[in-house]
């Protein structure tokens, strides 16, 4: 058996423990999302600054599992029952507008020699961190109102479409786009058939009683089944020549669709969060910081200047589509929605890593985009929460209702 050292993985795990503890002792005004501190810590202890920790094989393996679980939990948050009527139309139109703005930005950055593929940049700018948006809406008491439903639907469509486009157009596997479209259709059909089979099996009374009996024992049967589905979809995506992130995302969406009635297993999603956010996902973000080419970014003033421009492009691509909500909510809510939709980091990290692997993006450009994503997470949710809290609470009846299907 080859000798494998776990010193670097231990250091990464220790950072994952220290980051939330440090945030807990900071004043509320200074607190930032833990993901920001994890990436920054990875940069500081990594080759770019102190050189104490490297992203060796054990770290890379756990980080890959963390990426899969991150996309799985993102898919789990999508509520397909809200994607209908006016909110769905606005979400689709907003995403198309994001792509158009992203292509314009990509063309400009491409003319400057900063990016090799304007389309890749457009896709990178088109997603939103749904996991960071929902807590802000809940804190402001807007998650179940018109604003919350509209923003959550827009973020859900953006996340799904961005993952789909990234996997379809920029897969690291060989093959033409046309062949990938055929393989994608086959993969989606396989996923749908699997979802139907699992749904039919779940209707069995005997099986349901068995699941309830084993779900909170050491068998943890529901968690194991979810992990099996995740690994199966990731393996199928790779077998079809698609990106593994698409399989992970769809696995989460299928589990979320099948898990509509959680009254008999209320702790199921908490356990999945514990696996992901308790260990795997922090390793992914910290390792992303370890691999960030900060030295190349800082050494070149022209490269460093890309960060604010990328941040403006992100705000334009995802923020401007919020103007479509002007007939549903007031101006303050539209501004808050623009900031929330422009909050993006996990997908930016994923897309830039694929861009570097495919040779369509330089490490310096990837670092600039990740830094812009870090700034969006630091600035935009706080600004949106301030706008939502400072506005006078209008009665729900005063809001324009969202149309049904």
Given the C-alpha coordinates, what overall shape results? globular
Structural class: mainly alpha
CATH topology: Na+/H+ antiporter like fold
- String of helices and strands: HHHHHHHHHHHHHHHHHH
Biggest sheet layout:
none
Distance between the termini: 59 Å
Indicate the mean pLDDT: 82
Number of strands: 0
The top level CATH class name: Mainly Alpha
Q: How many domains would you count in the coordinates?
A: 1
Word description of this protein:
This protein is mostly helical and 405 residues long. The protein contains 18 helices and no strands. The protein is 71% helix and 0% strand. Helix 3 (57-76) crosses helix 12, helix 5 runs antiparallel to helix 17 and helix 7 runs parallel beside helix 16. The protein is globular, with a radius of gyration of 21 Å. It starts with 6 loop residues before the first helix and ends in a 15-residue tail after the last helix.
For this entry, give a set of tags.
single chain, 405 residues, Na+/H+ antiporter like fold, 71% helix, globular, disordered C terminus
Describe the secondary structure blueprint for this structure.
Blueprint: H1 7-25, H2 34-45, H3 57-76, H4 85-111, H5 118-125, H6 130-139, H7 146-169, H8 177-202, H9 205-214, H10 221-239, H11 244-258, H12 268-290, H13 294-299, H14 301-304, H15 306-319, H16 331-341, H17 346-358, H18 363-390
Helix pairs in contact: 1-2, 1-12, 2-12, 3-11, 3-12, 4-5, 4-7, 4-15, 5-17, 6-7, 6-18, 7-11, 7-16, 8-11, 10-11, 15-18, 16-18, 17-18
